[in-house]
Amino acid sequence: MGNTVGRQFYISRRQQEIIVGCLLGDGRLECRSQRRTARLRIHHGWKQKELVFWKYRELRNLVGSPPRKIISWRNPKTGENYYSWYFHSYTLKELERFYRSFYEGKRKKIPKEIANILTPLALATWVMDDGCFDRNTIILNTHNFGVKEIEILRKVMSEKFKLRWSINKDRTKWRMRLRKNDFPQMKRLIENYIIPSMRYKIVPVETCSSWEDL
Questions:
Q1: Tens digits of per-residue pLDDT, 164-195?
Q2: pTM greater than the 0.70 cutoff
Q3: Alpha helices, DSSP H, located in 29-146
């Protein structure tokens, strides 16, 4: 990864928005020292390879090595390997503020400033991570968050983007479903940011179950 001690890294506004979307979704920040630093880890399944490489290109100046393919699971019956892709950023002091905003201990939380940092690009990145097109609308699999935090997200998106969501239980977790009448507004808001391989998240190509690897 190289020595980053003492170096300063510029995180652009666009990169900040993408990082916010990643942290609302499948991205993870790791803070393993007392030096007030953190690193971002991106990890997706094989079907999301293009999403991993898009994130890598967008965050390239913060990353030391390109995405790597790893065996994520081996079927004990058939011996077949299942692969995934990942990369992580440098360990940076510039990412520590994201850690303070999004984490309480090791648990993810919704930042107090979410109304200011949730942008169309951040929302699109989040949809590419955790979204699912289902019955002419979008589901956000918000399983990382509690129902009170999801209520905050629902209020923010209603006030900021005029998007109305319902909340329903999915096994022991919670998820958000966009009201069908608001789907055209949502699509207009994010579709220019959705990469081609992820367009199935906003068009009726296929549906998915709650726990499918999105």
A1: 999 998 888 999 999 999 999 999 999 999 99
A2: yes
A3: 49-58, 96-102, 114-117, 120-130
